[in-house]
Amino acid sequence: MLPLRQFVAAARSRLSGVRIVLEDLSDPGNRAAILRSVEAFGLLHVHEVRSSRLRVGSTARGRSIVNGAEKWLTLHQHSDIRECLTSLKASQHALLAAVPPGKGRQPLPLESLRFDRPTALLFGSEAWGISSEALELCDATFTVPLPGLSESLNVSVAVAVCVHFAAFRRREALGLAPHEGDLQLEEVEELQESYAERSRENRFAASLRASRARKARDESQALAPVVVEDGERVGETLGF
Q: Based on the domain organization, do 234 and 170 belong to the same domain?
């Protein structure tokens, strides 16, 4: 279990004014990498939209990395992109859609974005990108300029770049210190308590998994054949 001071520091550094929206992400590896970056750079909220475009049985469904960064984030699940973005717009978030360079309606370069107001950054699926419905609901599009020869970035890499920049600019816009967040005191205290509880639950789950693994290993070893020095099998341990 992590020391209490780490929960306190993490809760105090969280940024609620920058949110990430993932539309129909299908690769669990990308999802895990994105959540890790979001958590590591101090954001708190991730909205995941899984619409009917994701085929039934997709590996993105039902996958959970409960032992990773996910347990320190607040995840919001949506089945409809319009509902997700409408609710964010109702809470006064600016909606900005990430697109590849040269795509969209004259996308703004990432470096020009301001984060003095609550902002949600939308990233699309690996297969289709951002849906036309989502683009219509967004206030603007933006892109990560790529002066090199590569034409695009993996979505998890793009999110990491954007999250780092957004966190820096959000703190700069609010006059915050490098490890200071934008949560109210009551929210910070509630998050600290939640982190401590999540850590206890995760520690119990990890202990249970380790116990099951040891039991399975012991049972496997009990069933292993006994072999003499010349390699000839002489019997099963359970048979003698």
A: no
